[in-house]
Amino acid sequence: MARNKSRKANTQPVRISPEKYIQTKARALPLDQCLYNPDWRSSGLATVLISRRQPSGNLIIGVYLVDVYCLGLKNTSCFFNESDFFLENELKEMAFSTQTYEPCDYVLAHNIIYGAIAYAEDLGFRPQKDFRVSQYILEEDDDHVELLELEFGKDGKPCYITGPYDNTSLIIGKLKAAVGEGNFTVIYAGDYPDDDSDDGHDDSDEDEEEFDEDEEVTAERDGDVVRLHMVSYQISYEPHMDERYQTYYEELGDQVEKLLGLAKKQPEKAIPVLEELIVKYPLFPLLQNYLSVAYMNTGRPDEANQLTEQMYHAFPDYLLARTNYARLFLQKGDLDRVAGILDNKLDIRQVYPDRDLFHFTEVINYNSLVAEYLIEKGELKSVQPYVDMLEKIDPDHPLTRQVIVKVMSARLNKMLKPRGK
Predict the structure, then answer these.
(1) How far apart are CA 239 and CA 388, in angstroms?
(2) Same domain? 287 vs 372
(3) Mean pLDDT of 71-79
(4) Which of 158, 181, 200 is the last residue of a domain?
(5) Is residue 75 part of a domain?
(6) Cα-based distances in Å from 421 to 65, 84, 222, 410
(7) Is residue 163 a contact partner of residue 72, using CB atoms and an 8 Å limit?
(8) Distance (Å, rounded) from C-alpha 58 to C-alpha 29?
(9) Statement: residue 92 has pLDDT above 50
(10) Which of 59, 62, 241, 337 has the greatest number of CB atoms lying within 10 Å of its CB?
């Protein structure tokens, strides 16, 4: 009878994909390491690495790049069946890039990741799609994990720092819908054209810093890599005053410094003031730059971008007009236009060979732009000297932090994505 027929036993092992293994078995594996960057609050970006030990002795590893100010989980990926050597000698360096990292309690790491995701979801932003797998390297987000009171956002409200692949207009539109105009901050590449009066550089000995032949560099391309050559110039930390516009500085006096603060902190109030001043002083580009900052900080990117383009055509030799205009095409991925606007010059001294003194914001703006351009071109080997330079000049400047974020994202994308297939 059919029911009594012997069946041939299936002796072949059942194979499951790495993705399925992580989704079904990872949470039962013992935790191995939990690492994070301890400056995540001040930098606005948390990088978390969590590894679990497989029965074979190899590792499953999750990496999580978290924007704690606004967007939540920006990037994540998994590694399956990897060795300790790979973790210690390759992945840690790639994942944390220039960040300092140290071990942390798993509960803190869990709360950073899931807290930022929840904060972002309230604003209309979902975690990056690969979280559908990497979430299983974390514990389940339930009452078994202690809930910590962590602060997200910056200064009590969402703070969006523009990213390398972001649809800026869409993100700002979501923020306006979620919390309303004026209730969020945008840190955009053009937001920091000048020094604030409270920058802390009051000591006259620190007003100028000379980068001698052992410190500063200029750049030339050598095949596929940018080579840096030593050069000397001075960087000033005094409030910046372009000599070409001396008359306007004198007429406006202290109002110049106050207008930048107003554009950042009370942009709605700054806009009519700046629009009126621009009519009176149409040849003073700094006012137009401040107005673009105010437009961006009130969620009006189209007007900010239009003004940026007008500034570049009206003042092509004005450094911030050039860098801000180039950033528009960088966001669009039009790298040929970026190179054209920069005249294919990779160092500020090549642009202004007759100058020996630059304001630190000029140096940061130009070098951060070049760094981002190289990142977009995939020339990651050429970027690190620019990161080192920016961190030396002002490690806490938003553009310095933005470049570091982009370097980490690019390295993760390059290294992690192929392994997740």
Answers:
(1) 24
(2) yes
(3) 90
(4) 158
(5) yes
(6) 19, 21, 34, 18
(7) no
(8) 11
(9) yes
(10) 62
Residue whose structure tokens are 């990897």:
82
Q: If residue 144 lies in a helix (H) or strand (E), which one and from where to where?
A: none
Of 143, 145, 144, 141, the closest CA to residue 131 belongs to 141
**Alpha helices (runs of H) in 26-105, residue ranges in sequence order:** 40-43, 84-86, 92-96
DSSP string, 338-350: HHHHTTT--SHHH
Instruction: Give me the DSSP letters along 4-19.
Output: GS------SPP---HH
DSSP 8-class letter at 183: S
Task: Please check whether residue 419 lies inside any domain of the structure.
Answer: no
Domain with 382, as residue range(s), is: 189-394
Task: Mark whether 99 and 196 lie in a shared domain.
Answer: no
Question: What is the band of 359 on the pLDDT scale with cuts at 50, 70, 90?
Answer: confident
Tokens read off for 366? 């130009």
Q: Of 129-143, 157-171, 212-226, 378-392, which range is least confident? A: 212-226
Would you say the pTM of this structure is higher than 0.90? no
Tokens found for residue 376: 């977009």
Tokens 């071109």 label which residue? 377
Give one word for 190, left, alpha or beta, with left for phi > 0 and alpha for psi -120 to 50. alpha
Are 153 and 195 members of one domain? Answer: no
Q: Which pair of tokens denotes residue 317? A: 């030799």
Longest dimension (CA), the chain: 106
Q: What is the mean pLDDT of residues 314-321?
A: 89
What type of residue sits at position 80? F
Domain count, the chain: 2
DSSP state of 44: S
Neighbours of 237 (CB within 10 A): 20
